[in-house]
């Protein structure tokens, strides 16, 4: 098992929900990726993805051939011909082991997607982050809500959405290192949002604190760390 870096990411800005919708995988078999999927930010190359898929398919078909199936040998031969391998080969080289691993290390700074993800959101009540407008979802009229006491559309009478922005706090683990390039890319995709990352890795003994806003890094400090987190 690798050492794990524990990460804490705080996202603030006018439409945090949009950021959260972008970074999750809605139809992933991997539960974790439904909250945070690095592939949505810096896509894992198609060539490796296809090889991974092909390897999974092969393995499923291989395992589906019963050990006591009287036609086992024929089926193994057919399967081997379809995938261009020696009959009876138990697995195919997947994309991750054909360059995908190196790609992840280089592009995500960690060999796997995030694990152990927990997400909490709350109303962002910090100074200067209160939205002053709300758009009616029925007639699309935009209202200035600064002095409104009852949030109702002046045009059509529909209730207006609560426009106080969200703050998202996400905790997750990454293998060996924090996913700095991924957060950096995310910050550039949503330059009207701010991203603050803290990370802790007790095994090698380092931690850090970085912040991006307006699409660029504001600071990134690294410290020695001998606490209990990560490792
Ligand atoms: Zn309206």
Strand content: 25-35%
What ligands does this structure carry?
zinc ion
Query: Could you list the spans in which at least 5 consecutive residues all have pLDDT below 50?
Result: none
Gross morphology: extended
Roughly what is the average pLDDT, rounded to an integer?
A: 91
User: How many helical elements?
Assistant: 5
Could you tell me the CATH topology label of the largest domain: Alpha-Beta Plaits
What is the H/E string?
EHHHHEEEEHEEE
Task: Round the Cα radius of gyration to an integer and report it.
Answer: 24 Å
Looking at the overall shape, the CATH architecture of the largest domain is 2-Layer Sandwich
How are the SSEs ordered, and which strands pair?
Elements: E1 4-12, H1 16-23, H2 46-64, H3 72-83, H4 100-108, E2 115-123, E3 133-135, E4 142-144, E5 166-175, H5 180-189, E6 194-201, E7 206-213, E8 216-224
Antiparallel strand pairs: 1-5, 1-6, 2-5, 3-4, 6-7, 7-8
Bound molecules: zinc ion.
List keywords for this structure.
single chain, 231 residues, alpha+beta, Alpha-Beta Plaits, two-stranded antiparallel ribbon, 26% strand, binds zinc ion
Report on the structure:
This protein has 231 residues and is of the alpha+beta class. The chain has 2 domains: 111 residues, Api92-like domains (Alpha-Beta Plaits, 2-Layer Sandwich); 71 residues, no CATH class. It has 5 helices and 8 strands; from the N terminus they run βααααββββαβββ. The strands form 2 sheets. The protein has a 6-stranded antiparallel β-sheet with strand order 2-5-1-6-7-8, with helices on one face. Strands 3-4 form a two-stranded antiparallel ribbon. It starts with a strand and ends in a 7-residue tail after the last strand. The mean pLDDT is 91. The structure holds zinc ion. Zinc ion (ZN) binds next to loops.
């Amino acid at each position: 098992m690798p050492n794990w870096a524990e990460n804490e990411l705080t996202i603030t800005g006018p439409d945090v929900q949009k950021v959260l919708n972008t970074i999750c995988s809605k139809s992933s078999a991997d539960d974790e990726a439904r909250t945070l999927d690095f592939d949505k930010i810096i896509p894992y190359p198609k060539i490796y993805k296809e090889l991974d898929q092909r390897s999974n398919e092969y393995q499923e078909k291989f395992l589906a051939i019963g050990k006591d199936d009287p036609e086992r040998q024929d089926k193994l031969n057919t399967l081997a011909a379809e995938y261009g391998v020696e009959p009876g080969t138990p697995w195919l080289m997947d994309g991750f082991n054909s360059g995908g691993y190196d790609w992840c290390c280089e592009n995500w700074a960690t060999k796997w997607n995030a694990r152990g993800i927990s997400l909490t959101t709350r109303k962002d009540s910090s100074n200067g982050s209160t939205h002053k407008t709300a758009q009616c979802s029925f007639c699309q009229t935009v209202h200035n809500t600064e002095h409104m006491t009852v949030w109702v559309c002046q045009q059509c009478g529909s209730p207006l959405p609560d426009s106080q922005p969200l703050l998202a706090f996400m905790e997750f683990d990454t293998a060996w290192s924090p996913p700095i390039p991924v957060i950096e890319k995310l910050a550039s995709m949503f330059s009207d949002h701010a991203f603050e990352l803290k990370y802790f890795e007790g095994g090698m003994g380092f931690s850090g604190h970085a912040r991006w806003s307006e699409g660029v890094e504001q600071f990134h400090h690294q410290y020695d760390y001998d606490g209990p987190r990560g490792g």
